[in-house]
Fold each of these.
Amino acid sequence: MAKPFRIGMIGYGFMGKAHSNAYRRVGNFFDLDFDVQLKAICARTAENAQEFADTWGYESVETDWRKLLERDDIDAVDICVPNNLHKEIALAAADAGKIILCEKPLAMNTAEGEEMCQAVERAGIANMVWYNYRRVPAVTFAKKLIDAGKLGKIFHYRANFLQDWTISEELPQGGNALWRLDVAAAGSGVTGDLLAHCIDTALWLNGGITDVNAMTETFVKERMHNLTGKVEPVGIDDACTFMCHFKNASLGLFESTRYARGHKALYTLEINGEHASLKWDLHDLHRLDLFDHQDDGTVRGWRSIHVTDGEHPYMDRWWVPGLQIGYEHTFVHQVADFLQDYAAGNPTTPSFRDALETQKVCDAVLSSAQSRQWTDVQ
Ligand SMILES: NC(=O)c1ccc[n+]([C@@H]2O[C@H](COP(=O)([O-])OP(=O)(O)OC[C@H]3O[C@@H](n4cnc5c(N)ncnc54)[C@H](O)[C@@H]3O)[C@@H](O)[C@H]2O)c1
């Protein structure tokens, strides 16, 4: 008989929906020792919380996250709120002995992240950060190919995350939906929001980063602030480009911006090794491109692998070969992995400690951009 795994979620925006969908689906597609139960959703207004609870099937609502943490009928707290609230909630949740599933980036900066790591480690509670792109089957498959030595020695790692939604100077900053433009709520701009994803995937696929050299730009210097009603300076980075060295001696090149007209969520990565290269593109997320130099020279060329076969990661759980899955499934995979690991008494990656490594790279990137110097990752 499956044991209950009772979720209390804080925040009901974009990620609130993505995670709720995952909790509802995971038991239908994966064999689990746990029965995931949507116990409570916490929002600041009861009306909004109730509407969300009715849509997604949460049993109850809370309007103060502290109340949620006091409840005995909650096993795990899911933190789906802006970045400036992660630490306070995580520290209190660790004190309350709750399992913590926290959205990325882990924290506003490394110092906060370190405190959060120490809190969960002291409390001995299971924890995880939602860097979901690791669980795109094509990306997980790339990891398998790299670990199996298919690429040989790696020379280059390149990643971009390009968007275009903040070009208008009329766009305000702050408050609901636009907290990402407010440095006090987000901590940073594209570095913590978008590059953090690219960095997490890179650390997973290619190992640690030793030092970085970065430039950032804030193209729109002032915006109306939704919370103060005044025009305020913009403190986030609108764009960031950095190069880096990896511990394995390969070179990295990363770019992110919200000013690349025409691009909505163009997360691409390319890895060039001695024997083979890999390419992946979020807009076509079920494909992995591979160039294998060990192929016969007459037919050698880039091949596009449709990562939908039963032998590909996670795909035996879904439809039949050839039928693809999408963005939302990455969250289902992450919950499934977490619950399977938790049942076996194993940690799930990325843990808080793993996600702290990404935070350290983000901090080094921002610091390098400011000092205009090569900067070591802590
Ligand atoms: N893994 C990913 O791919 C991914 C994608 C988007 C966002 N994120 C991360 O998820 C987090 C949330 O982002 P989002 O896009 O869902 O934002 P969002 O603006 O869509 O939702 C944020 C939610 O937090 C709620 N909230 C704010 N303050 C609160 C408080 N004091 N108590 C309770 N609720 C409160 C808001 O009402 C809203 O429901 C951020 O840390 C973000 O970086 C991760």
Amino acid sequence: MALWIAVGLAGAVIVVIGLLLRTRKQLARQARRIAEQETRLESQSGELTNQAAELERATTELRHANADLGVALADAQQARVRAEGAAQQKTRLAALLDASLASAPVGFGFFDRELRFLRVNAMLAEINGMPPEDHIGLSLGDIDPKLAQVVEPFLRRVLATRLPIANVEVAADAPRKPGELHHWLSSFYPIAPQGEVVGVGVAITDLTERKLLEAQLVQAQKMEAVGRLAGGIAHDFNNLLTVISNYTELMLQNAETPARNELQEIRHAAARAATLTRQLLVFSRKSAIEPRVVNPNDVVRGMQDMLRRVFLEDTEIVTSLDPETALVRVDPGQIDQVLMNLAINAADAMPQGGRLTIETDTVVVTDDLARRERGLEPGRYVTIAISDTGHGMTSQTLEHIFEPFFTTKEAGRGTGLGLSIVYGIVKQSGGHITVFSQPDVGTTFRIYLPVAEDLVARETAATGSN
Ligand SMILES: Nc1ncnc2c1ncn2[C@@H]1O[C@H](COP(=O)(O)OP(=O)(O)OP(=O)(O)O)[C@@H](O)[C@H]1O
Ligand SMILES: [Mg+2]
């Protein structure tokens, strides 16, 4: 029994041992698996740590990048604001340039290389007599071929030499106004924004008025000098003439004097010379002037008898006097002299007779007329016009008629002083003279005398302002 128990115990022990062994094996396997898992977990944890570090680096980088981006964005925004400002500034400058071109008192024009207008300013457009936009694409020849002949050589020279031509004086008829001579101070220059010449610019100033004033000044100085000279000798000469006349009269009073006819010729010549001296004295302004307020019609009427004697029998004399004429303030003796000179010239221009017309009128000179007629101020005037149907004058003669000693008459027939005296008197009276003449048709001289009332008002205003 005990054996059985022992055997049984032994068997049980064996089973237990067997069980224990299996369990140990199983445990060892599990331990191995756990160890393996541990290793795996360890390596995974290493990887995770790496990844975490990486992530952190990436985050930092991103944060930096974000900061950079912020700076870049701010920069970009600033740059955009600056660019917008610059663009606005550029637009403003362009508008300013446009405005200054438009109001410049100088004509500006820009041509391309084919010498076609790219642009002109208002002044040049006005000179050319057409709107600025109508110029674009046209050549100067399309506007005025004659002017183009004068101007285009300058433009071509600028294109060829790439050098500017400054301040040349170009004399030519105004564009599309043949016969209206103008003087232009002109400059031509290459336009080369990127170094290459793409066109030519011109800048012109009208010098016509200044030229005329200069010519008038020269004329006035000449008159002044001649006047002084003439005045200087006229007085002495007049005294000599008085002696000649007096002795001639004395001899003529003696009935027995031989050579009566010759003496009469001397008297006649002395009288003529005295008239001439009087002219010279007026010319040199040495004779006293006595202005009075007069009716211009009375002056004309007072001249009629004398006029009759100047003209040939077959000259018709017509007077047309404004019944409502205003009064003028002049020296009547001077106006006689003006009318006499104009009448004698008319008679000389009508050797075969003709018609002489004298008209008076009261007119208002508007600003517009004053602008066109140089030397005539706006205001109210009485005009006295003397017209003849004589041989008239060419434009060349017309240019010189008021110059002292200009005459087309043969020696002994004219001294050329008549019209310069007329001019002097009319100007001295605050007036003006115009002339219209056509060869073989006739001539009209029109003198403008300021209305007395206005003249007084003008003088009072002038003294009042001093
Ligand atoms: N009515 C006219 N018709 C044609 N030509 C004229 C007329 N009036 C003036 N002229 C021209 O103007 C010139 C100058 O005239 P102005 O009276 O000054 O001198 P003049 O008549 O020649 O000489 P002066 O008057 O001294 O005797 C004249 O020589 C003439 O050629
Ligand atoms: Mg004369």
